[in-house]
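Batch job 17 of 40 flagged for manual review because the log was empty.
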Amino acid sequence: MSQKTDEKIIKTEKEAVVKETKQEAKQSHAKKTAPKESFEKESGKKVSEKTSSGKEHEKSVFVKKKSQFSEYKLFNRWSFDDVVVSDLSLVRYINLDPVVIPHSFGRKTRGRFERQDLNIVERLINKLMRSGQGKRKLSGKYVRGRGSCGKKMEAVAIVEKAFEIIEKQTKQNPIQVLVRAIENSAPREDITRIKRGGVAYSLAVDLAPMKRLDEAVKNLALGGFGASFNKKVSAAQALADELIAAANNDIKSTSIKRKDEVERIAKASR
């Protein structure tokens, strides 16, 4: 009888130990999988907040999730974390994924809308490498390039120097200055030529967000080179001055002038 009772006691002790280990495993798994407050805000879940009257109400907060490479900084200097895009139509197309060197080697240029996944600083660099004359209304006198046509690292160096100048003059993050300049210089409407009954005339149309971004970046790069052509001003200094003027919505900026001109013509063609 004593052997049987000892076996029963051992079995009960083993069962108790197994139950405890299972409960501990469940609790640790629940702690790991429990959503934190920051995750709820990032994923757009409902977060309870107290009003001035003291009552709680649920409010859905939508914040863009942080990248897993958020510690990366542009040229190991400027962070992408604090950059804010205030124009809601351009939020989807101004890519601010953290990169150190904005050079993707053409990986995101094959699809139709794939360039929206290209970092905004690299898009500016690509516009600087364009050659040939710009539109006759804008230039007609100078050839773009400034020695960087087909030389991406040369264009990268120009942008890096321009960002250094912007930081010295404004004491702000140059990436934020670039985003603000794009928002201010992006035209909202343009004209298109249509033909009816053998008569051709212009009609005002709204611009898509992708087209707005393309036009803004192109005009910023063109304005930078226009101010440095046949002058002692360097390309980096001219680009920095153009970005600062456009960010302040200054009429001296070439991109702001171009935007006002396009919208004025479109308004007359409504």
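Reviewer: the log was empty due to a logging misconfiguration, but the result itself is present. The chain has two domains: 1-32, 73-268. Unflagging and moving on to job 18.
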